[in-house]
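testing teh design pipeline on a random one, pls ignore if ur not involved
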């Protein structure tokens, strides 16, 4: 049976670029009449994949003649790229949409767009359509490449545009991308997910797994190098599944080796790996390729085998720990991080103790922990909770206490050592301080000139905090 081609045809991409040219002409006319360029404000909620999608949105808007602002009050166009993984992210968006309503009352020509994973959910899109009538464009993850056409229709027809068609997903190559950071970049190698973890909405809003062709990935990275990029993070909901849907004899380890050969790339990161597909070949590749960072993010979500089964994770606590042991043996200086869900509906206090056991046994450098959030449309949403909210919050607080002590201990080991840091720029907490990351993804803050941004510098670590390190230039 012939494999279905999931790529958006070149002709369709060109058609969308024609819409960008038409919008650009409209914006040029606006500039001539008003002596100012139209401005766009984009905001991203959610994961790195959402961030990467927003970079494409900004790339398209830039070609359409927009300049950018962070202030919704002065923007002619506002687009929110949304997340559906947790309720908190959705509530933030609803709150922001309420604020935009008041802004638009004073600026009726303002256009507002909502896209991403929230918009791809039919019940959410319907709620926004009925309750937030001031939102002009609602389009899901599968319609991202159609933004030019959607925006052009919103401008010229002055009617609401909605595109949330259900799809297994496509791949749209050759979209313009606008990245803020030229020294490092996210590169999506695949989209969608086939795992259907019982708590997760991602397969329903992102579609099935579909891998980009390796030559397209390598071409994109080569172009990034030409523009000064030295660090890439390869993105996928489950990067270990890369290549399974292609007609080629290639897997994720093979792709990593190809990227490792690209001249000009100094660091390679990737996320996210699924433990059930994380095997010996990838461990060997990580250990043998000098450019792959000594860092691994491997979500285990819960320590109890019963809860893992309920979550449909397809591995056990023991299997996870065995894989971590192999990683530590092959790469002794590896930095480990993970995702943990506390309070899954079937989790008991005894089950939670298994999670604490894993945290103590592995000694992660950092964790991303969340209290379970019920997602409409997922199997887990129908389950009743075993624990009370008070018990779940108590367990969550205990997890943080245990991990914070481990993180501080791991960071203390860096004090007195010299680390190579890729400088990101000014620290978020102190405008007089620079911030960057080590190979192991540790955040390092130090005094230095902003001209060092995008460069690799040697920093002696002077003191450690729970989530970051302080140092001084060598």
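output:
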């Amino acid at each position: 049976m012939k494999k279905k081609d999931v790529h958006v045809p070149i002709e369709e991409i060109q058609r969308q670029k024609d819409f960008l040219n038409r919008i650009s002409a409209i914006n040029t006319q606006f500039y001539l009449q008003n002596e100012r360029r139209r401005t766009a404000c984009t905001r991203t909620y959610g994961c790195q994949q959402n961030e990467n999608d927003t970079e494409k949105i900004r790339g398209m808007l830039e070609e359409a003649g927009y300049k950018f602002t962070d202030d919704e009050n002065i923007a002619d166009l506002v687009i929110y790229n949304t997340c559906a993984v947790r309720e908190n992210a959705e509530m933030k968006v609803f709150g922001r949409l309420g604020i935009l309503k008041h802004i638009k009352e004073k600026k009726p020509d303002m256009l507002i767009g909502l896209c991403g994973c929230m918009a791809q959910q039919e019940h959410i899109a319907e709620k926004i359509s009925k309750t937030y009538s001031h939102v002009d464009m609602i389009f899901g993850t599968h319609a991202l490449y159609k933004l030019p056409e959607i925006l052009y229709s919103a401008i010229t027809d002055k009617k609401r545009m909605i595109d949330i068609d259900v799809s297994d997903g496509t791949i749209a190559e050759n979209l313009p991308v606008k990245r803020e950071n030229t020294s490092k970049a996210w590169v999506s190698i695949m989209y969608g997910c086939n795992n259907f973890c019982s708590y997760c909405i991602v397969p329903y809003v992102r579609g099935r797994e579909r891998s980009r062709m390796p030559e397209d990935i390598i071409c994109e990275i080569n172009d990034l190098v030409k523009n000064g990029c030295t660090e890439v993070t390869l993105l996928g909901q489950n990067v270990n599944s890369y290549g399974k849907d292609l007609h080629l004899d290639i897997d994720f380890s093979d792709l990593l080796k190809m990227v490792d050969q690209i001249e000009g790339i100094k660091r390679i990161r990737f996320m996210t790996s699924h433990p059930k597909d994380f095997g010996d070949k990838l461990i060997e590749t990580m250990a043998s390729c000098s450019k792959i960072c000594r860092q691994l993010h491997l979500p285990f979500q819960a320590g109890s085998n019963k809860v893992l089964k309920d979550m449909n994770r397809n591995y056990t606590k023991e299997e996870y720990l065995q894989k971590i042991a192999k990683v530590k043996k092959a790469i002794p200086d590896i930095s480990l991080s993970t995702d943990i869900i506390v309070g899954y509906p079937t989790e008991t206090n005894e089950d939670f103790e298994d999670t604490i056991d894993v945290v103590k046994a592995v000694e992660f450098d950092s964790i991303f922990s969340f209290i379970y959030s019920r997602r409409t449309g997922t199997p887990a949403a129908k389950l009743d909770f075993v624990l009370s909210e008070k018990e779940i919050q108590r367990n969550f607080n205990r997890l943080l206490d245990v991990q914070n002590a481990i993180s501080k201990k791991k960071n203390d080991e860096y004090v007195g050592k010299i680390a190579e840091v890729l400088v990101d720029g000014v620290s978020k907490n102190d405008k007089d301080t620079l911030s960057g990351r080590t190979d192991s993804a540790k955040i390092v803050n130090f005094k230095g000139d902003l001209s060092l941004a995008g460069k690799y510098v040697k920093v002696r670590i002077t003191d450690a905090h729970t989530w970051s390190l302080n140092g001084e230039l060598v």
